[in-house]
Amino acid sequence: MLRPLALCLLLVAVATVVVVDCAVLTENGMPILWQQTGGQLTDLPIQNDVLVPNPWHYLHRMSLYRLIIAATDPYMTSMGTNATDSPIWGLTLQLGWELTSGRLADPTGATTCGTETGDRMCISTESWWGCANYYFSVIPFLSAAQQGFFGDNVPVQMQVPEGVTDYCTTYADCATRFPDLMAKWDAFYQGLKVAAVSEASDVEKKDHILSLYWEAHQGSMASVVACSARKASYSAPEVSFADSWQSSADFIAASNFQSNLEKSVMFMSPLPSRILKEGDRAPHIADLSADENHSLYIFSWMRSMNTILGGTMTRLWRSAMCSIAAREKGRALLEQLLLNPGFSTATFLSIIATTASSC
What we know:
Layout (H helix, E strand, L loop, with lengths): L3 H11 L11 E2 L2 E2 L14 E2 L2 E2 L6 H15 L16 H12 L27 H19 L24 H7 L1 H18 L5 H22 L12 H19 L6 H8 L21 H19 L3 H9 L3 H16 L5 H14 L1
Antiparallel strand pairs: 1-2, 3-4
Helix pairs in contact: 2-3, 2-4, 3-9, 4-6, 4-7, 5-6, 6-7, 7-8, 8-10, 11-13
């Protein structure tokens, strides 16, 4: 019998008019190929006492997340009692989805990197999604190492393919190129240490940690502009989806969404299970499921409406997320909008306006 991952990849490869309802996010309840990743620093390459991961290999990049989660979990007891309550789990699922949906492969067709006929574990330096994820994986890892979460003075130098020069590879290099971004991730890790000895309630600690996390996350999102040129290799619908995906993070971040494993699976399952092609127009894409079509439509609606309103929707939303209680209600509202096809977008706008005015 085919494993779930292999089965879905096969279905995606051969699907024409068949509905494929499988944005593959987990295997046996864990992120894709999690059991094959490294759980110790020594599982990654070391040269001359320097840790040299290869972030262009899927298992290495996923290992960065596994190491970050293990190192920070002792500081995140306020997140909950489950071993998968850290908000960083959402990033692991995002990377796994990018693998299974083919978004880490070379979109130019010049190489077989990341393709079914080539090296499936290869992450192409030409992939917009792989480039964007670099700022959500390599940057947080380098910051965690600098802040001592893997031990004192652990030097890290990321590998980079020959001839590729537009990716930073060390803490110093990345801090020079992206000083504001690195400062935000440093602040997140420093905040974890402060929270661990704080006398604040777990509710307050949790909200504060999530606030720092999403501030860093949005710093990474802003830095993705460095990947913009790579969008030229994708279809207009895929580029539109990528832009909408970026815009939606503003709403999720402002609500201090706890992107643990369970909640992230719920929100990410409707993501499109393949790269969009010319002619794809949600909610009428025949070989995608109703849930995938709905999520694509909502992402597009959120971005379009915010553009039409001159950014007012985002500003109102941020104003509405003015307290711990308001952010909790905001998370529930996003769940309705993204996961309930019967929920009216007009109702969403009305609730935002009402909530913002009461803050």
